[in-house]
Write a structure and sequence with these properties.
single chain; alpha+beta; Aminopeptidase; Alpha-Beta Plaits; 2 domains; nine-stranded mixed beta sheet; five-stranded antiparallel beta sheet; 12 helices; 18 strands; binds (2S)-amino(hydroxy)ethanoic acid; binds manganese (II) ion
């Protein structure tokens, strides 16, 4: 089945969406429930409606756009990704899976096929941890991996709850009704840029993702004693930033010390109080992000860092408090979907390699309620979460081609 992908239209839509941002181009920033996010949602929803899809929002802002199949009652085949973007991001992360998913559906519609099962395009409420410190709030909720009560109380840096923010954004209804029943989807497939260098280095156009690394994240607060940068003698100091520096280097060392390249750890946030040039820092708030496809190895790093905190606290007389945000299990893709992706590559004469997803994705949580797999396309130099993030129209088109064929074979 040869499918015509309308690359021009898809690229026009990608660039139009990229222009909807709370930062001037070429930066893309779209934090969930922000004004830019709401404009982006309106933009994609009118595209879905124009494609004749049945569109609905759930109580937290997950968007569902359904192409009803011949057997409307059968579990749908799901695809999709996210349109939220962290501060100072690029225009492809997540969006390729949403607008690419739409173009895959339109290509199937144009080819005249009518799938036996419905194909549903999903835009997750948010994939990025920017707002609540926790990634994938939307898919966590719809996959039922968190109690609706807990989710409603997730707070942002200003102390606004998810419940208040979602209502202010116009999402009504009960959060508990956003939880999907177990057999809602028969399968879920997500198209995404790799956000790594493997495919580009190997000159391979398509990745079939076998595992999604499991993230664990935390906030670490280090409380010391402030004082005058001139008057406070060194032996009298409990410098919270100097203690944080020791901890940050220990994070890097602990990730490097495991026997695997699959272990990664990052301190991405370092808020210093009072942050004055002539004042000894009294408090520092750090973020911690540790990932691995092997949860035991990842938890070993967390355990080691807990011991490091103890030692720093004793030696330097500072208090260190760790607030774990999440420690999720990794996800393994479904063999049958991987084979469908590989068959689609074969049909299109495209080389395909099985690989690991080192960034997490909403598919990590979709795996809790349906067989899941992901399709990766290369991105230049593996760059992502930066305005110079780039995937070429050809690479995106190949990804959409494979996704469309995979959806068609899964939806019968
Ligand atoms: O952090 C991640 O892995 C994802 O891009 N939010
Ligand atoms: Mn991202
Ligand atoms: Mn993403």
């Amino acid at each position: 089945m040869k499918l015509e992908i309308n690359t021009e239209q898809l690229m026009r839509e990608l660039h139009a969406l990229a222009a909807i941002s709370s930062e001037p181009a070429p930066v893309v920033t779209r934090v969930v429930y922000s004004e830019a996010d709401m404009r982006a949602r309106a933009y994609v929803k009118q595209l879905f409606a124009a494609a004749g899809l049945q569109v609905r929002d759930d109580a937290v802002g997950n968007i569902f756009a359904r192409w009803v199949g011949q057997d409307a009652e059968a579990p749908a085949v799901g695809t999709g990704s996210h349109i939220d973007a962290i501060p100072n991001a690029g225009m492809y992360d997540g969006v390729v899976g949403v607008l690419g998913g739409l173009e895959a559906v339109r290509a199937l519609q144009r080819s005249g096929v009518r799938p036996r099962r419905s194909i549903e395009l999903l835009v997750f409420a948010a994939e990025e941890p920017t707002r609540f410190g926790l990634g994938c709030p939307g898919s966590r909720i719809l996959a039922g991996t968190v109690s609706p009560e807990t989710a409603r109380q997730w707070k942002d840096a200003e102390g606004q709850s998810l419940d208040a923010l979602r209502r202010a954004a116009g999402f009504t209804g009960e959060v508990k009704d956003a939880v999907l029943p177990q057999n809602y989807y028969g399968q879920f497939v997500e198209l995404h840029i790799e956000q790594g260098k493997f495919l580009e280095q190997e000159k391979i156009p398509i990745g079939a993702v076998t595992h999604i690394a499991a993230p664990a994240s935390a906030f670490i607060t280090i409380e010391g004693a402030g004082g005058h940068a001139g008057g406070m003698l060194m032996p009298d100091r409990k410098d919270a930033l100097a203690a944080a520096a020791k901890f940050i280097l220990a994070v890097e060392a602990a990730a490097k010390a495991t026997d695997s390249m699959d272990t990664v750890a990052t301190v991405g946030i370092c808020d210093v109080f009072p942050g004055a040039i002539n004042s000894v820092p009294s408090r520092v708030k750090l973020s911690l992000d540790v990932r691995d496809i092997d949860p035991a190895r990842r938890d070993g790093v967390l355990h080691e860092l807990a011991q490091v905190s103890e030692a720093i606290s004793k030696k330097r007389g500072v208090k260190i408090h760790t607030e774990m945000l999440n420690a999720d299990a990794p996800a393994a893709s479904d063999g049958a979907i991987l084979r469908a992706i590989e068959a689609a590559c074969q049909e299109n004469g495209l080389q395909c390699r099985r690989m690991v997803a080192r960034a997490y994705h909403d598919s990590l949580f979709m795996a809790r309620i349906a067989p899941m797999a992901m399709i990766f396309i290369p991105c230049r130099d593996g760059v992502s979460h930066r305005p110079d993030e780039f995937a070429s129209p050809e690479e995106i088109t190949r990804g959409v081609q494979v996704l469309a064929h995979t959806l068609a074979s899964l939806a019968g």
